[in-house]
Amino acid sequence: MTNPKKILIIIQRSNGDVFLSRSLIEQLQKSLRPKSIDLLVNDDTLPIAKLIPHIGQIYTFSYLKKKNTQWAQEKDLIKKIFRKYDLSINLTASDRSVIYALLASKNAISAVEKNSKKSWWKKLLLKGTYSFDYSRHILLNNLEPLRCMGIALSKVQVVPTISKTANNSIKSKLKDLTVDKFLIFHPSAQYRYKIYPKNLRNDLLKLLNQLKLPIIITGAQNLIDLEIKKTLPILDNVFDFIGQTSIEEYLALSNLSLGYIGMDTLNMHIAAVQNKPIFAIFGPTILKTWAPWSNELELSATNNIPLQTYGKITIFQADMKCVACGQAGCDGKGKSLCLDQISPKLIFNEINDWYQNAEF
To answer: Distances in Å between the alpha carbon of 266 and those of 75, 152, 206, 280, 298?
Structure first.
C-alpha cells in the first residue's frame, strides 16, 4: 500500500458520516499524494460528497434502485470499480460495503464489527481492519484507517471551503432583510425521532424572539422540513429560510452566523467544524459517537447528563435513565419521549447567558 496512485473511499451511511470524512481525505492527500481519490456513497448524500475537495469520480448507491431492480445496480457498480484501485478504504462495517472494498482493490482496509462471529471472514480477506467503536467519536473512527497504514493523524476537523458565489448569494439575501448579526435555528433532522416537538420548538422560538437578535430558521426542501415550515410562529425577529438555500449556501450562512441552535444533525457538525458556539438538543442519539467535535479541545462529550458545556459547545439531554438509547424512537416507534423532557426555558437561559456576556 506504499504510494497508491488511485484510492477509493466507501462511505455508505448518512450525510454526517460523509461530511466528517473530509479530515481523512485531506490527510490521505497530504501524506500519500495519490493521483486520484474517488468516493462511493449513498445517493442521498451526493450533495455533501460533491463539496469535498480532492475528489475525482463519485459513485452512488441507491436503496430505491436496489428495491426496484434487484441486482442490476450492484452488477453495474461492481463493473465500474472492479480492480480499478491501488487502495480501497471502507468506513462502515456492512457486508455490502466490505465486499465493494474487496472487489475494488487487492489492498482493502475496512471497519469491521467487534463481534468476531460477524467479522471473522472480513479480517481474513482484508489487508487492514479496525473495529467500528460506538464509544469513539465518528471523526476518530474515520481516522482509524490512517493508523492502520502507519500515518500520523490530526484530530482537527478541516474547515470546508466556501465558494465566492455562495458567499455573495447569502450576503445578498441578508442585506435584503437588513440582517447583520444573527443566530441559526435548525429545527429539523434526517429522521423524525430526532426532532424537538412542535409545541416546545415554538415556545423556544418565542423566547428567542425576546433577544431582539435575528434568528434565521434553516432547512431543506424535503417533506419533514416543509412540514415544520408550515407550523412556524410569526415573530418579529424570526426569519424563515427553510428551502431557500443550497447546501453550499448553508455553509456560507453558517460561517457568517454568531452560532447554532438546533438538533443533532449535519448542520450541527458544520457549525462545529467552523468553531461556532453551539446549543445542541439531543434525543436518543449516542453522544459518544455523534456529539459536536471541539477543534479547540480536540475532544467531544462522552457522558450523558442533562446539561453540559465544553469549549463553545453546550448540549441538552433529558434527565432519564434510558438516555441515550441509540434507538429510532421509544420502542422503535419513531417518537422519542426524551425530547419532550427538555425544557425550552432551560435552553433559552443558556443561550441568553451566553449572548449577554459574548463579545462580537
So the answer is: 31, 27, 25, 12, 19
Give residue-wise pLDDT tens across range 287-325: 999 999 999 999 999 999 999 999 999 999 999 999 999
Cα-trace Rg, the chain: 21
Q: What is the mean pLDDT of residues 13-35?
A: 95
278 strand-pairing partners: 260, 313
Query: Would you say the pTM of this structure is higher than 0.85?
Result: yes
| Every domain of the chain and the residues it spans | 6-148, 165-357
pLDDT at 9: 98
C-alpha to C-alpha distance for 241 and 257, rounded to whole angstroms: 13
Cβ-count burial 234-263 (b if 16+ within 10 Å, e if not): eeebbbebbebbebbbbbbbbbbbbbbbbb
* Backbone phi and psi for residue 222, each to the nearest 5 degrees, phi listed first: -90, 175
In this structure, which topology does domain 165-357 adopt according to CATH? Answer: Rossmann fold (3.40.50)
- Going by CATH, does the domain composed of 6-148 fall within 3.40.50.2000? yes
| Residue partners of 52: CB distance under 8 A and separation at least 6 | 18, 21, 22, 25, 39
- Which pLDDT score is estimated for 1? 58
Alpha-carbon distance 158 to 165, whole Å?
21
Rounded to 5 degrees, what are φ and ψ at 7? -125, 135
